[in-house]
Design a protein that fits this description.
This protein has about 400 residues and is α/β, with parallel strands linked by helices. About 45% of the residues lie in helices and about 10% in strands. It is built from 17 helices and nine strands. α9 packs across α11, α15 packs across α16 and α16 crosses α17.
Length: about 400
């Protein structure tokens, strides 16, 4: 397309910039405008994707018909089908009248579906049918209706990844993507950044009757080096802040640096990072599953060790008549958040389990009497000589504890 035609379009829609990416996007939009092909505009949030569908509609045979811009991400999932395809009276609570929906009202015109990647799967199926046949059924109706609507869609979501995760229909993607248009991020537009700053500063000066802020050369270089994760929307916001808050009208790099965030921001399409390209924890549930599986393995190992310890105790006991140790039940191990191992609650510990968690290992030929004496001594030591607490920890009665202390000569 000729440069003069592009400049005319830019003046008409107040588009500032001369970078190749922007010029190519406008060129494709003007070429596809006379057709009825679906268009998918892809770009980061804040790059100005909403300009392209307006250019397409105004330069198409449908320019005298209605144009609707719909943010799919702002409509609740429960009502989006009704908003798009209409409903009949009584089809749901609050449906006091028939509604044609956007596809009915915009017949012969153009619908701009912004954030199309946020559509629920059920709505995606309805949209696919409209694109293929021009037919749809309002919510609660049984009669098929026809519509002739031109669809222009936009998204800042990585559609390819959404398809692989089952969040977006692949067949719908190919129907929408008849003509793709890529909007360049602000960080790739070079000197366009300075031109946009000048435009926004001029608009602020005219609107609020103030002197316009201007950039020094070093400030211009800083402006173009910044990554601009919020793109044009962020640049306008910062320009407005400087215009209002800066007492100086000549903006140096030092002044500009006070308004530009220094933290690291993402500059990619909305996506979920995959480590090493082959594994990704894409939601908290997967992480919890991994932790629980690991914990379950640890618990099973603990139970096996406790079973082996109990078996060794029974072998040591053999046929000797000794006072039985309280072993009503083994402690129940509960899964808890990952943290350093803490002593098990005394109310749940019996003699065998207590011996298991002791870091010191006893000799293999230790007899049961020595083992019981050792546990009594350690229980008393842990409870600072308090016999009642020691008995509770061992799961035996106070009377039994006193009898054993006397038996082992520990009652002194």
């Amino acid at each position: 397309m000729k440069t003069s035609e592009l400049q005319t379009i830019k003046q008409r829609y107040n588009i500032v910039g001369n970078c190749d990416g922007l010029n190519h996007a406008l060129d494709v939009a003007l070429q596809v405008a006379p057709t009825d092909l679906s268009v998918l505009i892809v770009g980061e949030s804040g790059v100005g994707k909403e300009i392209i569908p307006r250019v397409i509609h105004d330069n198409s045979p449908r320019r005298r018909e209605k144009y609707f811009a719909i943010n799919c991400g702002s409509i609740p999932e429960g009502t989006i089908d009704s908003e798009l395809f209409g409903h009949i009276k009584g089809s749901f609570t609050g449906a006091i009248n028939d509604s044609p929906g956007y596809f009915g009202v915009a017949n012969k015109g153009t619908l701009f579906l912004d954030e199309v990647g946020e559509l629920p799967l059920a709505t995606q199926a309805r949209l696919l049918r409209v694109l293929e046949t021009g037919e749809y059924i309002p919510v609660g109706a049984t009669e098929v209706r026809k519509t002739d609507v031109r669809i222009v869609a936009a998204t800042n979501v990585n559609i390819r990844q959404a398809i692989s995760e089952g969040r977006f229909r692949e067949d719908l993607y190919y129907r929408l993507n008849s003509i793709p248009i890529q909007m360049p991020p602000l960080r790739e537009r070079g000197e366009d950044i300075v031109l946009l700053f000048r435009l926004f500063a001029l608009q602020m000066a005219e609107k609020y009757k103030m002197d316009r802020v201007v950039l020094t050369e070093d400030a211009k270089q800083l402006l173009m080096k910044y990554k601009w994760p919020g793109n044009v929307r962020q640049l306008k916001n910062i320009t407005e802040q400087i215009s209002v808050l800066s007492t100086e009208r000549s903006i140096t790099s030092e002044i500009l640096a006070r308004f530009i965030p220094q933290d690291h921001e993402t500059t990619e399409l909305a996506t979920i990072h995959r480590e090493n390209g082959d594994h990704s924890f894409e939601n908290e549930r997967e992480i919890l599953y991994k932790i629980l599986f690991e914990l379950r393995g640890n618990v099973n190992d603990m139970r096996r060790e406790m079973g082996a310890m109990k078996k060794r105790l029974e072998e040591v006991q053999g046929g000797k008549a000794v006072t039985p140790i309280a072993t009503e039940s083994l402690p129940t191990t509960q899964i808890a958040p990952i943290q350093p191992i803490q002593p098990i609650s005394p109310a749940l510990v019996d003699a065998e389990a207590e011996e298991y968690i002791e870091p010191e290992r006893e000799p293999e030929n230790l007899n049961l009497n020595d083992l019981s004496k050792t546990m009594l001594e350690r229980a008393l030591e842990r409870n600072h000589g308090n016999r009642k607490k020691a008995a509770q920890e061992l799961g035996i009665s106070d009377r039994t504890l006193y009898r054993r202390l006397k038996q082992y000569g520990l009652d002194k």
